Amino acid sequence: MSSHREAPEISKDPVADNTDTYAFVSPDKPDTVTLVANFIPLQQPDGGPNFYEFGDDVRYEIHVANKGTGEADITYRFKFHTRIRNAKTFLYNTGQIKNISDETWNRPQYYTVSVVRNGKERTLARNLPVPPVNVGKRSTPDYKTLSNQAIHKIGNGRKVFAGQRADAFHVDLGSIFDLGALRPFNEAHLISMPNMGGVNAVQSYNVHTIAIQVPIKQLTRDRSRPKDPMAEKAVIGVWASASRRKSRIFDQESGSYKGHGPWEQVGRLGNPLFNEVIVPMAEKDTWNARRPHGDRRYEKYVNKPELQGLLPVLYPGVFPKLAAYDKPRADLNAILLTGIPAGIVPGFQNYTGPVKSDMLRLNVAIPPSDKPKNLGLVAGDAAGFPNGRRIRDDVVTIELRAIAGLTIPLVDPSYQPDDAASAVTDGTKNTNAAVTGKFPYLGLPGGGYQTEPGTTKAS
Questions:
Q1: Basic and acidic residues composition bias: which ranges (predicted)?
Q2: Which of 90, 126, 239, 446 could link 451 by a cystine bridge, Cβ 3.0 to 4.6 Å?
């Protein structure tokens, strides 16, 4: 999956596990960019009595690079704190929650959002309320209202949301991690089984979302809104991270953990699936602790990804041309580590310079598509992945086809991809309930009472 439990240590620390990062020009407000970072993977909607929440001891950040160095020029920082209204009950809520400020909600969360520029931090808003989780029809009878109350305007054209949403990512985990099988191509697998449709393993789960919408002029290096897609200043890099204090001690008196010392990064995410399927297991947690500007050390894994070698073995006779290709993967280098330079895709570029760094790269001069295609740039839709990442973009299929060789001709015209490269997919798709047309763009989370295994229902 994109980054759900993608490394051994972060899988033990779900509140700091960044599952997906998105960056796109807002379709309903194209003078802004929406940045989204999801955390806490695979949330069962009925996971009470101690429901999921942001970590009070985690520093959540969304970073923007606009000078080509692979280092953050702008950082939006989020810090949460939790209250307990009634210390004598085990209940999350003692009655219906009809308003985000209702006293019946026993464990409300609040947060501060700040921006860091040139090493200086400035608070944008304090004590912003988070909505409760979607407990069920009795406890949270009008969840849409509670969710809308958690969308906050914080000045200068910005708005922000933090709270539970439906997980819009889709992937067939049960098949992919069963010896790299893709259900639509089961018969061609080394261990053959009947072909069938894909099964979205995360359809019935929620995540915790941090989303901020910001005017484009506040993100570019010269504070302008570029109109020329070929302009260098039109491209920004985006990634998210989670950090903890260097040491963590359980305080018996308060019954909670206390952090001490400087903040240390424990998780990050730029491009989907980078740490998941590119970085070897022994290096995954080290990757999580490093900053993008040092990612040259991972270039060797991009140049010769392990999955490229596995596909011809797992699907005998299906990928002979891929099996014979022994050049460094310059196409994947461009997609994942530098951005795509001008001259490769007509009228498009999202190049951030020679510094190898794993980031989403978004060309803010490219407007939202009137007819978005979930395969993004490879389907001719320049507003989609790998130009940033929209909520509906089918990044699993896009990256599977790229690794299978479909994008090699962009940089090596002598290469003719295998026929299967343009057809490979895990067979899953987004559910309509997981995506909306308005900020924060992810759908309402599944409710505990309403949700059955394998389904997601917000009401």
A1: 1-15
A2: 446
Which helix (H) or strand (E) segment is 312 a member of?
Answer: helix 306-314
Residue 147 confidence (pLDDT):
97
Residue 4 inside a domain? The answer is no
Number of H helices, E strands in the chain: 8, 12
Question: Nearest-CA neighbor of 55 among 108, 15, 3?
Answer: 15
d(CA 138, CA 450): 10
How many structural domains comprise the chain? 1
Name the 3-class secondary structure at 186. helix
State which residues form the domain around 401. Answer: 10-434
Residue 380, classed as helix, strand or coil, is coil
pLDDT at 238 over 80: yes
Quick check: is 1 in a domain? no
- Chain centre distance of CA 99: 29
Q: How far apart are CA 418 and CA 312, in angstroms?
A: 11
Q: How far is CA 91 from the centre of its chain?
A: 32
CB distance 369 to 383 below 8 Å: yes
Q: How many residues does the chain have?
A: 459
Q: What's the CA gap between 46 and 452, in Å, rounded?
A: 9
Q: What is the pTM of this model?
A: 0.95
Q: Are 281 and 290 in contact (CB under 8 A)?
A: no
For 372, phi then psi, to 5°, come to -65, 140
Task: Say if 216 falls within a structural domain.
Answer: yes
Q: State the Cα–Cα distance between residues 87 and 72, nearest whole angstrom.
A: 41
Q: Per residue in 243-262, pLDDT tens?
A: 999 998 888 887 888 888 99
Q: Which among 425, 405, 403 has a CA at the least distance from the CA of 416?
A: 405
Asked if 278 and 340 count as a contact pair (C-beta separation under 8 A), the reply is no
Q: Which residue has the tokens 């950090």?
A: 243
Overall average pLDDT of the 319-326 stretch: 97
Strand partners, 246: none
Nearest partner of 14 among 66, 58, 47, judged by Cα? 58
Cα–Cα dist 363/396, whole Å? 21
Domain contains 2: no
At 121-146, the pLDDT tens digits run: 999 999 999 999 999 999 999 999 99
Average pLDDT of the chain, as a whole number: 94
Which of 274, 277, 245 is closest to 258 using CA atoms? 245
**Residue 455's pLDDT is what?**
58
Percent of the chain with pLDDT over 70: 98
- Residue 244: is it exposed, middle or buried by C-beta count within 10 angstroms (0-12/13-18/19+)? buried
